[in-house]
Amino acid sequence: MANENWYSIHHHEKVISPSLLVYPDRVQHNIDLMISMIGDLNRLRPHVKTYKNANIIKMQMAKGIQKFKCATIAEAELLGDCNAVDVLLAMQPVGANAQRFIELIKKYPNTKFSTLLDNSKTLNIISELASTDNTKISLWVDINNGMNRTGIIPDQDALELYTQLHENPNLIAEGLHVYDGHLRNSDPTIREQECNTAFEAVIELKKSIENHKIPSPKIVAGGSPTFPFHCKRTDVDASPGTTLLWDSGYGNLFPEMDFLPAAVLFTRIISKPTTGILCFDLGHKSVAPEMPFPRIEFLDLKHSKQISQSEEHLVVEYDDLTIPEVGDAHYAIPRHICPTVAKYDTLTIVKDNTVIDYWPVTARTQKSTI
């Protein structure tokens, strides 16, 4: 892995561009690092949203990881196909997805499925569906501890919601789900302080639940940036996701974390329209475009500046006019890997600088069979 050209591939003329290359040796390093950081497989619940692939799920299961988190029914179904033991759908099911969740449970009886809610209306809808199907549904109360994206503030209302959940005969109260993706300070000391401060209200809510003679709730907390800190809480499950493939966004923000980039974009120069301008076949359809430039970090093209992007094209200013030629192959790490993976049907698997396989991105679709 110390090889400075670890990312390059032999016989690249046979590889289509753009492609997303994945390096299983590096994925394995990241899995082993996750496990060593937490020290307890029972408290590790990785998120599969980044890679959406059975091979990487099975690599983790081979190391003893049994609990997973996902964001879509299709990802949950993929985990069911992999015979995962315990799956948390970390997206409150609304509309047709509530019934789809029931169908998911029926299709995979050997997998324990649970999901989230943050309000009484959803609780009542899921309770009615469970009653109709003569089953019990496992639910977590989703907590908003500062991100203001989903969840309920951990106050009296959250206590009342959790009490409703506990007392409902059709439902099983699993615990509290806490995602703090807004905590991204690049200074790990400050980030840990912010993480602990935001988590204080969650601890108080847990105590309030216990004081009402309700069984102590389990807690699933954090993502990749706060994973090192939630690892230290012996009564909390941590749920990193980007750690499996990593990217330049997190790599540059959190250099103290030793995860390796394990996914690389393979691209080619398709035009040199004028002096100092290169155009690559790496448009919006091939790399996550929601970030400001730079959206990728070239591994083999220094002194470049990304200036525009459209559906199929990425335009770059480059100050060396003698080296790049049309058709030249280049390599880049995406700034945001999760939505980048979803743009590819397959991952091109590389070992020892050689393409050895192609892994399907099975759960990139909105629906598999359910």
TrEMBL record:
UniProt-recorded Gene Ontology molecular function terms: D-serine ammonia-lyase activity
Gene3D superfamilies recorded: Alanine racemase, D-serine dehydratase-like domain
InterPro entries reported for this sequence: Ala_racemase_N, D-amino_acid_metab_enzyme, D-ser_dehydrat-like_dom, D-ser_dehydrat-like_sf, PLP-binding_barrel
Matching Pfam families: Ala_racemase_N (PF01168), D-ser_dehydrat (PF14031)
Domain of life the protein comes from: Bacteria
GO biological process, alphabetically ordered: D-serine catabolic process
Keywords: Lyase
Domain D-serine dehydratase-like: 262-351
Family indicated by similarity: Belongs to the DSD1 family.
Record's protein name: D-serine deaminase, pyridoxal phosphate-dependent
